[in-house]
């Protein structure tokens, strides 16, 4: 069967050119868009590289339209390998992402089959399936695969899938529908579990009570009648799953359960029927009369216990994903807006940026926005983790999902739908939870061969007992025990369950983990580098003095504000705010050029304006010695001095201060108590920086640093073998955050740059740095515990079962308890709380912001 999707027209070419086309079973034609080729040499280089890729039969690269045409054998290559080769050669391949909710997976084998099916779809570049979230993240070539084809590929191997909507309202509807389906399935499973328990308990009593001296006998025929509905009706899900696995030439937990219980049931039924039909010919097989034992209780108990375990596991898994559901519930379904002077209640999807939204006391804010009128306290606890409501008044920014206090607010919407802070947070948390830790890749490789290996061990066990002159009964019970004690579910859930619970717990307390690799590295951090401004200090400097060395103050300040009006630097904003407070107005400046770490240069009202450090003035050929005394006096007061020169002459020195955050000293002490070294990086002059560091208990400080100097400091520490965490505001120090092993961006609500670092702290409390490292340690501790127990179950249980030392029913109980214990252990992370120390008293004195 051939499948094809079309490529959009390129340079007037036909839009009917198939991008991915399967021709028969042994050939796929792929037309791959490639970016970054600039000459014929690039095209030739890529063509040679693709021609050398195993499985590629032919490759031709067209530079004019930026495309590589290939024919490859799908048994020897796939789209992912080809795209990897293109990228390794130095070029880019554009991709787009789809997220699918997948239901029906029971173990790592199931997840592996879904991944394999998706990756085998022409045009799919990458596919990762998270068993705990029941979610598939797929990256594919643009326009190459319809979402419906991904669903079809999953359904073809026996699972159900729904493409997740990118629209927040539609996503909420999907989640509600999914929850309703889960509740219905949960009720059905509970009824079936109750039936299984009712039928199995008499069989268990028949096995256990005689050991306690209580005479209980269930006739063999009644044992068969009780066990048959459990085996064939309650156990039908295992047969279906096993058949799907066999059909797709793979293995899963269902196959082990179905095979193990079927052997025990069939053996017992054979013994029973043989004893009933020909008792004189086979006296030793007369059940319960000195002959072979019946194992109906084992087959029924295994199915019942595994069913119970999956039901408990499902409840526990829903607990681990509670954080996402809590965040989704923060978004109200409707909003009250003002249109044409009238208030209207509309669906949340109908609210647009620029609309005026009315929020009454006690209501949730439906959108991000700016307060136009009104004053209230807003509870942002579920967004930032801040337990106390924060005051908001005219001009303040507010976040959708927060709860309004006692005042009425009129808000101008600035971000709605998928662009809102809440939607971005949900995406970040979901992406983090669906990520795969490095250790999970090893577990996936083990899981891929786990079931076939277990089946082989069971076969060798059966044969070994017979060769060693054991009875058929001994061989059967040992083989069945081997099959049902194996725990592929525990292996598959060990890592993702802990990651989902850990990232969810962190999100509840204002710690957003965007990158699973960053989370993994965070638990090994031994050096934390703090950028000072906005991290250890409030980040809101104020002008506290202006010394005029020439000219008139207001006229100079007016020119300075004109040049700095477009700057996002804290000092620039402080100077502009001071000029506004003085009632000054100005025309837009021209030819404005920023000098990172030094200052800014521009032209205003025909004057050349230079604003910044003495080093900047020196670089511009301006003599700044007249300001030396002013700068020295300001440094003695821990103030920052910004120098101003007009038309090549030194004109003014502006002094600013930025107080420390109340929690800064406690944050530093908390990290040092954990044995983590703390250093501070600052753009300040050294005397100012050292005074700030001393007040916080930091002994290592680097001053007068530009952004590239901070990057160099991070790289030096890493090259020395340190595991480095860099903490900053995510704006001025983004390169340093990216260079560190772990970047932590600190901010406040919608002011924070969510994509700036691997870990984002949603409120400006530096104590959350230690909390982020703590939750990383707690998560990885759970992962190690889970993997340890998952492997112990199998490493210890399989040999014990093979030696015939384990009753099959007990083996089934161990299998059921393994996955339940792993998920329940991960669920304990929901109880995690950050340990935030109180701040010690710090001597009061003015503290500075970093220089421009």
Automatic annotation (TrEMBL):
Its main location: membrane. Its EC number is 7.2.2.9. It catalyses: Cu(2+)(in) + ATP + H2O = Cu(2+)(out) + ADP + phosphate + H(+). GO terms for cellular component: endomembrane system; plasma membrane. One of its GO terms (molecular function) is ATP hydrolysis activity. The keyword Nucleotide-binding applies. The chain crosses the membrane at residues 190-209, 215-234, 255-274, 294-312, 446-468, 474-501, 787-806, 812-829. It is found in: Cell membrane; Endomembrane system. It comes from the Bacteria. It is an enzyme of class 7 (translocase). Residues 28-94, 96-162 form the HMA domain. Keywords: ATP-binding, Cell membrane, Membrane, Metal-binding, Nucleotide-binding, Translocase, Transmembrane, Transmembrane helix. It is a multi-pass membrane protein. It holds the Pfam family HMA. InterPro entries: ATPase_P-typ_cyto_dom_N, ATPase_P-typ_P_site, ATPase_P-typ_TM_dom_sf, ATPase_P-typ_transduc_dom_A_sf, ATPase_P-type_domA, HAD-like_sf, HAD_sf, Heavy-metal-associated_CS. NCBIfam families: ATPase-IB1_Cu (TIGR01511), ATPase-IB_hvy (TIGR01525), ATPase_P-type (TIGR01494). Belongs to the cation transport ATPase (P-type) (TC 3.A.3) family. Type IB subfamily. This is P-type Cu(2+) transporter. It comes from Defluviicoccus vanus.
């Amino acid at each position: 069967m051939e499948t094809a999707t079309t490529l959009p027209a390129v340079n007037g070419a036909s839009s009917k050119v198939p991008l991915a086309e399967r021709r028969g079973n042994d050939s796929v034609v792929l037309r791959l868009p490639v970016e970054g080729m600039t000459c014929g040499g690039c095209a030739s280089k890529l063509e040679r590289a693709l021609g050398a890729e195993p499985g590629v039969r032919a490759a031709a690269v067209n530079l004019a339209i930026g495309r590589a045409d290939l024919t490859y054998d799908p048994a020897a290559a796939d789209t992912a390998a080809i795209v990897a080769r293109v990228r390794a050669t130095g070029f880019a391949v554009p991709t787009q992402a789809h997220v699918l909710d997948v239901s029906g997976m029971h173990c790592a084998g199931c997840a592996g089959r879904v991944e394999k099916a998706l990756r085998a779809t022409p045009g799919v570049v990458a596919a990762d399936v998270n068993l705990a979230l029941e979610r598939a993240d797929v990256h594919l070539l643009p326009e190459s695969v319809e979402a419906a084809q991904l669903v079809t590929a999953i359904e073809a191997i026996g699972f159900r899938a729904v493409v997740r909507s990118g629209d927040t309202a539609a996503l909420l509807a999907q989640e509600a529908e999914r929850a309703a389906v889960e509740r219905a399935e949960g009720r059905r499973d509970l009824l079936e579990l109750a039936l299984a328990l009712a039928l199995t308990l008499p069989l268990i009593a028949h096995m256990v009570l005689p050991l306690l001296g209580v005479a209980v006998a269930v006739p063999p025929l009644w044992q068969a009648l009780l066990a048959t509905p459990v085996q064939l009706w309650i156990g039908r899900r295992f047969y279906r799953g096993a058949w799907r696995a066999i059909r797709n030439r793979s293995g899963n937990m269902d196959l082990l359960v179905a095979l193990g219980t079927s052997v025990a049931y069939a053996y017992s039924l054979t013994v029973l029927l043989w004893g009933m039909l020909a008792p004189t010919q086979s006296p030793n097989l007369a059940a319960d009369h000195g002959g072979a034992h019946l194992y109906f209780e084992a087959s029924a108990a295994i199915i019942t216990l595994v069913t119970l375990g999956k039901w408990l596991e499902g409840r526990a898994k829903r607990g681990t994903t509670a954080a996402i559901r809590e965040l989704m519930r923060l978004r109200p379904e409707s909003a009250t807006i003002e249109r044409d002077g009238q208030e209207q209640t509309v669906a949340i999807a109908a609210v647009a940026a620029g609309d005026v939204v009315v929020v009454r006391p006690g209501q949730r804010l439906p959108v991000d926005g700016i307060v136009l009128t009104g004053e209230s306290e807003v509870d942002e606890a579920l967004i930032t983790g801040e337990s106390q409501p924060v005051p908001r008044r005219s001009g303040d920014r507010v976040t959708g999902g927060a709860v309004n206090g006692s005042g009425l607010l009129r808000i101008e919407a600035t971000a709605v739908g998928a662009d809102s802070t809440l939607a971005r947070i949900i995406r970040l948390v979901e992406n983090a939870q669906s990520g795969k830790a490095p250790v999970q890749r090893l577990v996936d490789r083990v899981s891929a061969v786990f079931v076939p290996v277990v089946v082989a061990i069971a076969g060798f066990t059966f044969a070994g007992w017979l060769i060693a002159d054991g009875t058929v009964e001994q061989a059967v019970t040992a083989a069945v025990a081997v099959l049902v004690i194996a725990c592929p579910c525990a292996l598959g859930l060990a890592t993702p369950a802990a990651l989902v619970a850990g990232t969810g717990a962190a999100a509840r307390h204002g710690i957003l983990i965007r990158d699973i690799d960053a989370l993994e590295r965070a638990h090994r951090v031994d050096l934390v580098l703090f950028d000072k401004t906005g991290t250890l200090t409030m980040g809101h400097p104020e002008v506290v003095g202006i010394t005029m060395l020439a000219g008139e103050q207001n006229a100079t300040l007016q020119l300075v504000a004109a040049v700095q009006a477009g700057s996002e630097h804290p000092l620039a904003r402080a100077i502009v705010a001071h000029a506004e407070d003085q009632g000054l107005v100005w025309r837009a400046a021209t030819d404005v050029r920023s000098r990172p770490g030094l200052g800014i240069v521009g032209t205003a009202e025909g004057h050349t304006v230079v604003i910044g450090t003495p080093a900047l003035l020196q670089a511009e050929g301006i003599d700044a010695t007249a300001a030396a005394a002013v700068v020295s006096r300001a440094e003695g007061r821990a103030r920052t001095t910004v120098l101003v020169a007009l038309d090549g002459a030194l004109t003014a020195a502006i002094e600013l201060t930025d107080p420390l955050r109340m929690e800064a000293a406690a944050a530093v002490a908390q990290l040092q108590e954990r044995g983590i070294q703390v250093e501070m990086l600052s753009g300040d002059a050294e005397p100012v920086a050292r005074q700030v560091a001393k007040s916080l208990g930091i002994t290592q400080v680097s001053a007068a640093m530009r952004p590239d100097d901070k990057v160099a400091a991070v790289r030096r520490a890493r090259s020395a073998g340190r595991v480095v965490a860099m903490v900053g505001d995510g704006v001025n120090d983004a390169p340093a955050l990216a260079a560190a092993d772990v970047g932590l961006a600190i901010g406040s609500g919608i002011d924070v740059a969510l994509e700036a670092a691997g870990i984002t702290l949603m409120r400006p409390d530096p104590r959350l740095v230690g909390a982020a490292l703590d939750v990383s340690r707690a998560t990885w501790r759970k992962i190690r515990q889970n993997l340890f127990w998952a492997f112990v179950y199998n490493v210890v249980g399989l040999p014990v079962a093979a030696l015939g030392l384990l009753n099959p029913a007990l083996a089934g109980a161990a299998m059921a308890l393994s996955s339940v214990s792993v998920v329940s252990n991960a669920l304990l992370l929901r109880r995690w709380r950050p340990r935030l120390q109180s701040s010690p008293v710090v001597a009061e004195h003015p503290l500075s912001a970093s220089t421009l």
